[in-house]
Amino acid sequence: MNSLPFKALLGHETILFVDDEEALVKPSVLLLEKLGYRVVGIRSSMEAIETFSKDPDAFDLVITDQVMPQLTGVELARRMLNIRPTLSIILCTGLVDTFTPDVAKEHGFRGLLEKPLFLHDLATTVRRVLDEKE
């Protein structure tokens, strides 16, 4: 487990958080905002791709659920990566038997978060993925 000091987990980047469960979107957005990030929370994969397509460079990172109506997280990531191949995307899922870190990486994800989300896991994974870009 990574034991970075809390200050090292803070950020300023812009994150697009996508999950069809409102009960997960609102608290996750609040947690990320408390860490200093600017966060856009969206509950629809179709709305997420529409928002992203309008300004692909507006987001430093996307965090997406896998199981959603219309587009799965893998399908959403594929569409976003077709628009901006260097985009950092984290998969957030409860399907950890299906999506190991290696499988997630094969689909273009740069990180994997297991549901339910915990602050430390969320903060360290987000910071690690964002720092890998630099």
Could you explain the architecture of this structure?
It is globular and about 35 Å long. Helix content is 41%, strand content 19%. The model has no long low-confidence stretch (mean pLDDT 91). It has helices spanning 22-34, 45-54, 73-83, 101-106, 119-133; strands spanning 14-18, 38-42, 61-65, 88-93, 111-114. Helix 2 runs parallel beside helix 3. Strand 1, helix 1 and strand 2 (38-42) form a beta-alpha-beta unit. The chain has five helices and five strands, in the order βαβαβαβαβα. The protein is an alpha/beta fold. It has one domain (11-133): Response regulator (Rossmann fold, 3-Layer(aba) Sandwich).
SSE layout:
Layout: E1 14-18, H1 22-34, E2 38-42, H2 45-54, E3 61-65, H3 73-83, E4 88-93, H4 101-106, E5 111-114, H5 119-133
Parallel strand pairs: 1-2, 1-3, 3-4, 4-5
Helix pairs in contact: 2-3
Task: Provide a compact summary of the structure.
The protein is an alpha/beta fold and 134 residues long. It has helices at residues 22-34, 45-54, 73-83, 101-106, 119-133; strands at 14-18, 38-42, 61-65, 88-93, 111-114. It is built from 5 helices and 5 strands.
Descriptive labels:
alpha/beta; globular; Rossmann fold; five-stranded parallel beta sheet
Largest sheet: 5 strands, parallel
What's the shape? globular
Note the gap between the termini: 22 Å
- Percent of residues in β-strands: 15-25%
Query: Which blocks of ≥5 consecutive residues have pLDDT under 50?
Result: none
Order of helices and strands: EHEHEHEHEH
Helix content: 40-55%
Number of domains: 1
Mean pLDDT: 91
Query: What CATH architecture do you see?
Result: 3-Layer(aba) Sandwich
Tally the helices.
5
Helix/strand/pairing category: alpha/beta
- Strand order within the widest beta sheet: 2-1-3-4-5
